[in-house]
Each structure stands twice: as C-alpha cells, then as structure tokens.
Amino acid sequence: MDEKHFFCSYCNKELKISKNLINKISKGSIREDEAVSKAISIHNKKEHSLILGIKFKLFIENKLDKKKLNEYFDNYSKAVTFAARIFDKIRSPYKFIGLKDKNTKKWTFPKAKCVFCLEEKEVAYANEKDNSKICTECYLKEFGENGIRKKIYSTRGRKVEPKYNIFNSTKELSSTHYNYAIRDAFQLLDALKKQRQKKLKSIFNQKLRLKEFEDIFSDPQKRIELSLKPHQREKRYIHLSKSGQESINRGYTLRFVRGKIKSLTRNIEREEKSLRKKTPIHFKGNRLMIFPAGIKFDFASNKVKISISKNLPNEFNFSGTNVKNEHGKSFFKSRIELIKTQKPKYAYVLRKIKREYSKLRNYEIEKIRLENPNADLCDFYLQYTTETESRNNEEINGIIGIDRGITNLACLVLLKKGDKKPSGVKFYKGNKILGMKIAYRKHLYLLKGKRNKLRKQRQIRAIEPKINLILHQISKDIVKIAKEKNFAIALEQLEKPKKARFAQRKKEKYKLALFTFKNLSTLIEYKSKREGIPVIYVPPEKTSQMCSHCAINGDEHVDTQRPYKKPNAQKPSYSLFKCNKCGIELNADYNAAFNIAQKGLKTLMLNHSH
What we know:
Distance between the termini: 25 Å
Mean pLDDT: 84
Structural class: alpha+beta
Strand content: 15-25%
Radius of gyration: 30 Å
C-alpha cells in the first residue's frame, strides 16, 4: 500500500495520510482529493484548533442552596472513589505478561488458551490466583471502561451485585453524574498508575547515579583525576564512563561524593518504602462536569441556567460585564462574543477554597468544618470552554523576527517582503521580571535554617501572577502589531537557553537559570492562532553569531565578535556585536532578531511556493 502525504503550512512539513483513509481510497469509497481535504481537517482540528476557556464566578445568596451544592460535590466525590476502588479490586489480580525485546523494541506474548473466548492465541494478561490467561481483545472487552461499567451500573434490563452497585455509594446524584463518575474513576486510576511509573523511573535513575558515585569513591581504577584550577584546593574526579569530557566537567571531590552517596541511599530507601505501600484511592471532588447543552446564558441580566440536578438550584448570577474594572469588562465582553458565536467543547462547575483559607492545610480546614458545619469556606465557578479552528491568513505582507533574552525580554524586527532593511524595531525590557525573581530567591535563601520554614514560605506572596501579567501584556502587544501590519511571526525553536560559545560568568549563569524561555512563545502562539497569524519556528543555529548585515547579500558567516569591547571601554559588553568582515557594530539582540526575521521570511516564501 503506497503512502500518501499532505502539506501543513502551520507545521511547515509533509504529513502522512492515515491508513484508514488510504484503505477507503483503494476500495473506491472516497476520492483522493476528498481524502486529502479530510486528512487536513482532522489534523487541523487535532493540532491547530484553538481551545479558549472563560471562568465565571457564581453568586449563591441562599445559604441553604450553597450547602446543598456543597453536599452534591461531596456525594460525587464518594461515587468516584467508590467506583475507582471497585475497578482496582476487579482488575488487580490480572497482571501484564508481555515481554519487550531490547533490540527491536517490540512486544512478544506467550501463546495459551484464553479463558473467555476459549481460543488458542497470544495472551497478554494472567490471573495471579488461578494462573488463567486472557487475550488483549477479551481483556479490553471485560475489564475496559465499558466492560466494568456493565458490572457496576445497573439498568432496567441489567442487574449487578449489590456490593458493586455504584447507586449504593450515594443516592443523591443524577444518572448523568453517575456515568461521569465512572469515567472520572478510570482517569483517577490512570493518574495513579502514571505517578507510580514516574517514581520507578526516578528510583532507577538515582540507582545509576549512586553506582557511579560508589565507583568514584571506592575504586581508583574507575575514576579520572582532573587537573586542578587556580581557585581549587581539593582533588576532583569524574567517572571513567565520562572520559573525553574533562574540559567541560567540573568533577567532584571525594568529600562531596561521600555526602552524595549518603543522601542518594536515603532517598532510594524512602521512595522504595513508599512504593511498597499501596496509594490510597481518594477523589477530592472539586470538579463537576456539565453537559454544555444544559447551560443557557442571559447576558442582559448576568444570569446563567445550569441543569445539575432536580434538587439543586438551576439559576445563578455570574460575574460578567457587571464587573467594576474596565479591563475586566472588555475581557468578559470579548469572551461572551466567543460563547455566542463558537460551539462549546466542555463545561465544569468548580469548587474552590476561598482566598482567606487557601493557605491553610487540609486538616486545618477539616477542623473548621467540624467546629462549624455551616461555615462558608468555598466559592463556586463555571468553567466554560469553546473550540475554534484557527484561520490561516494567506496574504502576508512581511514578518516579525523575535529574539528572546534576559536584559531584553523580546527584541522585535519588522521586515517587509522584498525589503532588505527592517521597517521597524522594538525592545521589551526584562529588568522587572528579573528583579522579582532575584528578590524571591533571596527571600527563600534567608529562610534557610529558620523555624517554621515551610509555613513562612507559604506566606510569601507568589510572583507568578505578576510575571504572567507582564508576559500577557507583551504578547498581546506583539500580536496586535502583527495583526495591524498583516505580518507573520518568527521565533527560535528554543526549549532552554542557547549554549554560549564563550565562558559565562557565574552571575550570567544565575540569570539564565531564573529565566523561562517557553512561557512568552506559548502566549504569542495561542494569541496568534486566535487572530489567524502564522507563527514560524526557525532553527536557532548561528542566529546570534551570524552578521545580519552581510546575510542580506547572501554572505552567511560567523567571523564576528561577541562580547565586543569598544576602544574606550574598560571591559567587553555582551550586548554588543561586531562583524570582522564589514566592520559594522550592532546591538546583539537586534542582530539575532534580524537573522530570525530573514530565516522566517525564507521559510514563509517556501511555504507559499509549496
């Protein structure tokens, strides 16, 4: 069967059409052009559809109604916990018996008679009690979500055992929420399984590190001694397996290695002990799924109808355009327009602890509840989410190259199609974010060795909301410029800071460790999707080393100086850049942003020609 492809201008690459669609083409049930358009729409919906959510606060004036809603959440929590424990009990005797080949990385299964279908075939699961075997198809049929649902959810034509019946966990829920409880129970068990796998992986990696440190400490033949640097007094070593990395590795002193062996041994013992204990299955129940068709807004009076249950109130006041803040009004107005025009994806009613109680621990909150059962501890919110397919604007006039950094959070270079020189440049300073992060780190450092350290750490005001606000404002401004000019946006494909080609000072490394490079690009990307602005990621190689002035004429070289020291300056500056060929002196961030813009424009032109 021949592979067929389609080109995605967002991903900037060719993608395979699914086997299912290729089979339909070969059978003649669908034409090739129809299959390609269907594959594009499926891919766009999966990868490029824009999911936007809005959270409204619900106001419940009647205390009795609020108490009923709170009890309903508690009952839902009981139902999910009950279902999850039953699933675990039913499935726990069956263990996976597949073996993975290390070379081919394919699973192999033994052949035996399946207990359910009574056929001789490959079996994937075995019962520990009676050693009975089950094939994959039968396991999914009997112990998948639908199979176990039949064992615990009774209907008119189907009876279940009383000890498994989910209706015996609580009588207060609607039939819809009993179904949602079963689905949430499966998600809870999957989350616990992933958590356990993560712990096992962590233990495995710690054991490898422990083995390395033990070899360095006890076996002189398995360690390499490094040459001492001027400021070093004790001998330093690295493991034999890391030979050839002497120049980039600082090495470890034997005193440090001894301490590391002690701490790693203690951590491994602690984590293995926690794995031997079974994780208690408990669902907090602070989230209740609502079918979107059961939600009806009345924006004129700021009221919303939510059909949760017959015994609960179905009309609530919500925080909409009646908020006092002008920014809040415009935000809610734009979101309400989306709700009116776009189709809903999903909706939840959320229960959150009030801000004044948010820093208390669970046992302290339970103590307040026991002392005063009528205490008003929670607020309720409606999380409403819409899904829209991103628009792809074909008529692009140019591109904005963005270089992200520390001193300058973002440097923008605007480059029109056909132009050799930028039409505009803009800098966004990062001093404010850097100052907040350094102050926060210092505050945490001063708490070292103090009494009630954890309690005092919780009392420090979080800086993330302030940082996110600054990043939101910058990303909003960038997308606004791109929309007005009808420009695409080009960014570097960075997950972490670029490795410097020169030695960095300790202060610079500290600043780099504090900085988060991904957040700004994520915000720019989702805001651009909403406006139909293409975002292009270019490879980061040589963007800060190449001379952008020479690159205009096609001469891409790295015969440059950075950091550059001016003739009258006392020390070289990391923010300056000089080309040894043409002799031009530029701001280093501007040079990198211009290179990104040129790379992005080439990619954009290639996409359009494709």
